[in-house]
Amino acid sequence: MNAVNKVILHDLDIDYHEKLRGKCDSIIHADGKYAPCQGCFGCWTKHPAECYMKDSLKQAARVIGQADEFVIITENLYGAYSPAVKNVLDRSIGISTPLSTYRGRQMHHTLRYGKHGLLKVIVYGDITDTEKETFTYIAERNAINNGFEKSEVIFAEDFSGLEDLV
What we know:
The protein is 27% helix and 29% strand. It is α/β, with parallel strands linked by helices.
């Protein structure tokens, strides 16, 4: 049986970062201590899956692209990812190539690393029913676009047992 490569991306504080570290193979802390994507597309063309910016997200596309299971823990922001998490996801566009193909009867970018298992999104913070619907839809679309077989969204009422949801 093959081991599952699990990657966690989160916007929690450093205490949770340390708690989550032992629950995955790789962890990305969306702490905002990195530059936003510049839109140069170098990670697509010049140096595949590697950002030219020399900060903590230089290899983010490669790490996320090789994940069998990708867990995102994010605060709700109007039914979408927190800005810190969104910045990391923007910087990981290199998990695909600029070429296109059909997946699910729709046009998507060709995957650089092939298919993956599960995209799990754990959302915390105040959230309305409409925002839950929006978040579920976003996760489903992100799963298709990034080659995950399925997506799961969990809405956490509070932080108690959060690390057990991973």
